[in-house]
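2024-03-11 09:14:02 INFO queue: dequeued item Probable transcriptional regulator, len=261
2024-03-11 09:14:02 INFO validating residues
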Amino acid sequence: MLEEERASASKRQVPAVTRAIAILRQLAREDEPIGVNPLARALDLVPSTCLHILRVLQDEGLVAFDPDTKRYSIGLGILPLARSAIQRNAFTALVQPRLDELSAQFGVTSIATQLTDPGHMVVVALSHSTLPFRLQVDLGSRFPALISATGRCFAAFNRIGEKRLREEFDRLVWDHPPAYEDWLAQIEETRARGFAVDPGTYISGVTVTAVPLFDASGRMTRSIVAIGISERVQATGVQVLADAMLAMRDDIANMQIGMEN
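2024-03-11 09:14:37 INFO prediction written
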C-alpha cells in the first residue's frame, strides 16, 4: 500500500463534514442560486440530509438563503475565512511586491493564482494597472483552471487525460472560443516556450500572459498572470513581458527554496 493510501486509510471518516464541504464547493461552482433538490441530485445526497446541512451552514453565515425563491447560494461568511487564508499564505507575501512592480513597469493588471481544487484557480494576490484600464477581478476570484492563458499552462504542465481535457474544454466560456485543435496546438507551444498567451480569445481586446509555478513534485499549482489592453501589450512586446514574468517566477522560486533550507 502506498504512503498516501495508508494515510487515507488511517483517517477517521466524518460523513457530515465531507458532505458539508461538498455542498459549499458545489454552491461556489454554481452561477445562480440553486434549490435543495437539484443540489442534492448533483451531489448524490438524500434531499432531507442536504437540507439539514444547508440550514446549519446558513446559521453559520456560510450559505445564503432566498425565502422567495427557496434557493441557496454561497454566503458572505466565507469571505473572512478566505481572506485570512490568503493573508497567511507565504507565497502571497513573496509575490505581492513583485506584482506591484510588474503593473507599474508594463501598465498591466497583475495577479497570482493558486489551485484550490482539481478544477479551479483562485486569485491570491492582485495589483491593478495605474492606467485607466481596469479589469473586474478581486482577491478570492475563482475561475476554471483551464481557461485563458493560465489554462494553457495548466494543460501543458499537468497530466490530464484526453477525455477529461475535451470535456472540460467544452464547458469553458470565451468571448471568442478557439477551435479545440487550435487550443491543443497552443498548449504544445506553451510547453515548448514555458509561458502562455491568450490574444483576446478569453476577453475581447485584452491579452493575457501567464507563467507557471510548480510544486515540489513538478506539478503546476500556481501562476503569475499579466492582463492588459492588446494594443499596449503588442507595442511593448509579449516576449519582453513574458521574460520579466519568468525572471520574477524564478526569483520567487529561489526565495522559497531559501526559506525551506
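2024-03-11 09:14:37 INFO annotate: Residues 81-260 form a domain with the Beta-Lactamase fold (CATH 3.30.450.40).
2024-03-11 09:14:38 INFO item closed
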